[in-house]
């Protein structure tokens, strides 16, 4: 009896070992079921053949918050809209990729982030409906359309927002450090090159108010600078050129000046400590795309009111933005296209902007844009619309590649972070990024 | 163990003896009965095995198939045969060996203190205490806390600028430590989350085993003049040996699969495990390759390497168990 118990215990242990290990492996093939595959639509009790359209999004798109779904359902009583939100893009996108390829389980409309749009264009074009013939393409900024267009001219996604860049800065801190505080004067001072912005940082640090730095992180400077380069990681023929690209080099050098000096608060964007940095006013400026304005207002809180201001960035640059695509797997293609078209129309984009400052990708919306009154007041009555639309119109088209995002991560989260937080030399940081990117590209 | 056949034989003969119905019908019914007895156990256990096959075995084999191909997440249908390329690639990859080293070192610095502390705590809880149930529940609360919530709090405690840990250290004249980016600091921080979450759980397992130790063993030890420490050392620990082995096995498996804590500790770029991959475990490396970079073939090869490593660990454990069981 004793031996048999022992054996069964051992078997149990082995079974447990096997189950646990294989569970881990299975985790990589299993798909989390969050109920978002419910696009069966029709006939759920209403009896009138009501169609349910689902839209898959990540983060906060603002459609629901701006009341657009309710409005659409009122306009189209036979349609009901349901949004399936996944918070993180790095969770959302792999899920969409596998479902697209499986040909089932996709939502009727899928949002695509700018970091994934090239991968979608190059590898998933046949899984998306060509929207080019259903819309007036001239509505959108040309560079926005170009990002979602395949080589043979198919448009797989309609532009939602864009992320034109400006510089958000603390007037009170600039003043204490003896810098100009007028937004036009500042824009004039650093006009043309992000390295001029960094030079101003050196001046700031000479008289910096105690406990403050000029900028939040070196990566934020890199990101802003590289977002306006006419070429970064890929050339227009799709070759990987990140290590000889002029845009990357200049942005890297600016970031290295920041990382090796004392002007950075050495924070990582979107960490809780970054939020605290806003609240405590530990850094005096940050390169801010339009969508970050609301974030700053929220995180800085009441104490920052009227102290923040916005100036035009040294060079036009873009960070972020998304698209809405309609997977061919949907059973309500016509209705889904109509909804995507409506949601991305200039009027609706203007409504989203009014709600949460996601900047429209449709220039015809610009003259009528009205940010919320308290947001304008928060940023010292800066002409937000003017600054961001001027930037949006002058952003150069930038070829993107399938592995753009992993390459970008390698430079920011490996290369720059090592120099900024681990005290490595710029050349060590560059080598580490190079090694990482080789691994990413499988070379 | 009694086999189903034995039970069957006994009960089948008894029904035949009891019923006086014609032999044909009886044999039909007994055959049915025999079939029922034989098949039912398998039917009853089948749900587990069906689910096991669908969600574990098939993915496991499919992952093996993937690991022998070049597969991108964005092009699952375009697989090209790679043979052992992915494995060779790992073998010569610094990132893989680094991840393996991190997994082992974080595993050791989290498991060893955790189990020692659990043993000590269980010993204390084994005394007559006022409100013992309350203490035990308190011990188990960290285990019931979600990884995400616990890690979020720990990340704040360990933050470089204004974190509580650095604030306490400054009273001892220690300069602020950049916990997330320093090599050993980050590993220690990740381990501390694991220790915090699992110590109570292991302590309760030890406690349960301790209470099954007959009191007369302690009495006779006391008669022989053993003090408390000697009793613990010579009575409690030897009696707990199978339990300790069990917790070692389970903790080792947990340590090999360490994933959630370092991922969330790293914040936005958590899958890198720090700018120098200083706390990137094998689990994180696999996640980074598969879901962030989209290199599924290589990620599958990492998964299978982990599986093989676990098999080796399990085999070592088995050998140790056998040896320890044989010794008195």
Automatic annotation (TrEMBL), chain A:
Q: Which domain of life is it from?
A: Bacteria
- Location of region: Disordered: 422-443
UniProt keyword Signal present = yes
Annotated Basic and acidic residues bias: 433-443
According to the record, the signal peptide region is 1-26
Q: InterPro entries per the record?
A: Bact_solute-bd_prot1, SBP
Keywords from UniProt, A to Z, are:
Signal
Which PROSITE patterns does the protein's record reference? PROKAR_LIPOPROTEIN
What Pfam families does the database record attribute to this sequence?
Answer: SBP_bac_8
Matching PANTHER family = ARABINOSE-BINDING PROTEIN-RELATED (PTHR43649), SUGAR BINDING SECRETED PROTEIN (PTHR43649:SF32)
| Record protein name field | Sugar-binding protein
The species is: Streptomyces alanosinicus
Lineage of this protein's species? Bacteria, Bacillati, Actinomycetota, Actinomycetes, Kitasatosporales
From TrEMBL, chain B:
- Which keywords does the record carry? Cell membrane, Membrane, Transmembrane, Transmembrane helix, Transport
Q: Name one GO biological process term.
A: transmembrane transport
Entry's SUPFAM superfamilies?
MetI-like
UniProt xrefs under Gene3D superfamilies: MetI-like
Q: Does the keyword Ion transport apply?
A: no
Cellular component terms, GO, for this chain's entry?
plasma membrane
Q: Hey, what's the signal peptide range on this chain?
A: none
The record's section on PROSITE patterns has:
ABC_TM1
Question: Per UniProt, what is one Pfam family of this protein?
Answer: BPD_transp_1
Q: Where in the cell is it found?
A: Cell membrane
Stated membrane topology is: Multi-pass membrane protein
Q: What is its main location?
A: membrane
Q: CDD domains, alphabetically?
A: TM_PBP2
Query: Which residues span the membrane?
Result: 39-62, 104-125, 137-160, 188-209, 243-260, 301-320
Under InterPro entries, the record lists: ABC_transporter_permease (IPR051393), MetI-like (IPR000515), MetI-like_sf (IPR035906)
- Extract the PANTHER family matched here: ABC TRANSPORTER PERMEASE PROTEIN, INNER MEMBRANE ABC TRANSPORTER PERMEASE PROTEIN YCJO
Q: Write down what this protein is called.
A: ABC transporter permease
Give the species.
Answer: Streptomyces alanosinicus
């Amino acid at each position: 009896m004793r031996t048999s118990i022992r054996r069964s215990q051992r078997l149990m242990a082995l079974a447990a070992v096997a189950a646990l290990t294989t569970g881990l492996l299975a985790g990589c093939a299993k798909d989390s079921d969050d109920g978002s595959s419910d696009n069966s639509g029709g006939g759920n009790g209403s009896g009138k053949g009501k169609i349910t359209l689902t839209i898959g999004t990540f983060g906060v798109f603002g459609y629901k918050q701006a009341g657009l779904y309710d409005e659409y359902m009122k306009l189209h009583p036979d349609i009901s809209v349901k949004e399936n939100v996944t918070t993180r893009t790095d969770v959302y996108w792999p899920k969409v990729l596998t479902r697209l390829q499986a040909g089932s389980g996709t939502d009727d409309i899928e949002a695509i982030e700018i970091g994934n749009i090239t991968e979608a264009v190059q590898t998933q074009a046949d899984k998306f409906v060509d929207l080019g013939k259903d819309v007036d393409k001239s509505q959108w900024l040309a560079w926005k359309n170009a990002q979602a267009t395949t080589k043979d001219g198919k448009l797989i996604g309609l532009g939602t927002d864009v992320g034109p860049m400006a510089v958000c800065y603390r007037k009170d801190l600039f003043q204490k450090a003896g810098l100009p505080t007028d937004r036009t004067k500042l824009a004039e001072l650093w006009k043309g090159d992000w390295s001029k912005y960094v030079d101003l940082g050196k001046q700031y640090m000479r008289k910096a108010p105690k406990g403050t730095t000029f900028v939040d992180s070196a990566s934020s400077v890199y990101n802003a600078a590289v977002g306006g380069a006419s070429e970064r990681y890929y050339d227009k023929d799709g070759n990987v050129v990140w290590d000889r690209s002029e845009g990357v080099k200049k942005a890297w050098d600016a970031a290295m000046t920041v990382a090796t000096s004392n002007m950075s608060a050495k924070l990582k964007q979107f960490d809780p400590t970054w939020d605290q940095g806003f609240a405590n006013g530990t850094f005096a400026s940050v390169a801010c795309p339009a969508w970050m304005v609301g974030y700053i207002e929220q995180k800085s809180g009441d104490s920052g009111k009227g102290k923040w201001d916005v100036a035009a960035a040294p060079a036009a640059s873009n960070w972020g933005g998304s698209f809405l695509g309609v997977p061919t797997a949907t059973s309500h293609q016509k209705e889904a296209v109509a909804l995507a078209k409506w949601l991305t129309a200039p009027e609706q984009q203007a409504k989203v902007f009014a709600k949460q400052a996601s900047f429209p990708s449709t220039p015809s919306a610009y003259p009528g844009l009205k940010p919320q009154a308290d947001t304008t007041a928060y940023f010292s009555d800066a002409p937000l619309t003017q600054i961001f639309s001027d930037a949006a119109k002058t952003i150069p088209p930038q070829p993107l590649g399938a592995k753009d995002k992993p390459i970008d991560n390698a430079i920011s989260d490996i290369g720059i972070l090592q120099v900024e937080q681990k005290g490595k030399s710029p050349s060590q940081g560059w080598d580490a990024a190079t090694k990482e990117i080789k691994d990413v590209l499988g070379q | 163990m009694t086999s189903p056949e034995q039970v069957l034989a006994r009960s089948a003969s008894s029904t035949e003896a009891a019923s006086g119905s014609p032999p044909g019908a009886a044999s039909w019914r007994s055959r049915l009965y025999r079939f029922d007895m034989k098949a039912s156990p398998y039917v009853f256990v089948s749900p587990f095995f069906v689910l096991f096959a669908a969600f574990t075995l098939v993915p496991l084999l499919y992952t093996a198939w993937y690991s022998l191909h070049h597969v991108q997440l964005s092009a699952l249908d375009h697989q090209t045969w790679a043979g052992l390329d992915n494995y060779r690639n790992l073998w010569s990859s610094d990132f893989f060996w680094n991840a393996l080293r991190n997994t082992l070192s974080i595993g050791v610095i989290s498991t060893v203190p955790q189990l020692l502390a659990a043993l000590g705590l269980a010993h204390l809880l084994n005394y007559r205490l006022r409100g013992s149930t309350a203490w035990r529940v308190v011990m188990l609360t960290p285990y019931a806390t979600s990884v995400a919530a616990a890690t979020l709090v720990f990340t704040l405690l360990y933050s470089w600028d204004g974190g509580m840990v650095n604030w306490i250290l400054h009273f001892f004249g220690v300069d602020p430590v950049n916990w997330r980016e320093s090599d050993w600091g980050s590993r220690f921080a990740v381990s501390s989350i694991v220790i915090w979450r699992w110590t109570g759980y292991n302590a309760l397992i030890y406690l349960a085993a301790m209470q099954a130790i007959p009191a007369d063993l302690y009495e006779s030890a006391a008669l022989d003049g053993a003090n408390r420490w000697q009793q613990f050392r010579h009575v409690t620990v030897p009696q707990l040996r199978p339990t300790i082995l069990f917790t070692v096995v389970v903790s080792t498996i947990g340590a090999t699969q360490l994933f959630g804590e370092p991922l969330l500790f790293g914040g936005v770029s958590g899958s890198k495990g720090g700018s120098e991959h200083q706390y990137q475990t094998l689990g994180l490396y696999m996640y980074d390759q598969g879901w962030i970079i989209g290199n599924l073939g290589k990620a599958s090869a990492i998964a299978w390497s982990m599986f093989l490593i676990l098999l080796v660990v399990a085999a070592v454990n088995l050998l140790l168990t056998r040896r320890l069981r044989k010794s008195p």
